[in-house]
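Tutorial handout. Part one gives the primary structure; part two gives the three-dimensional structure as tokens.
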Amino acid sequence: MSMAVAGLIAGMALGFAGYFGGFGAFLLVAALGAVGFVAGRFLDGDLEPGDFFRPRDRDGRGR
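Part two.
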């Protein structure tokens, strides 16, 4: 599945949640989608748990 199709599906899900459930449902679906995205990146091996807790260098670069 391409990223465009995944974005289309996510946008439609958020649209339906906002229309039928109101703004609170929209925020809930968006937050759970973000959690699912981060969990998927962990499972794919694209992210490491230390990426969120590693201190940054003084020159502003991440690594």
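Part three, for discussion. The CA atoms of residues 25 and 31 lie 10 Å apart. The chain has one helix and no strands.
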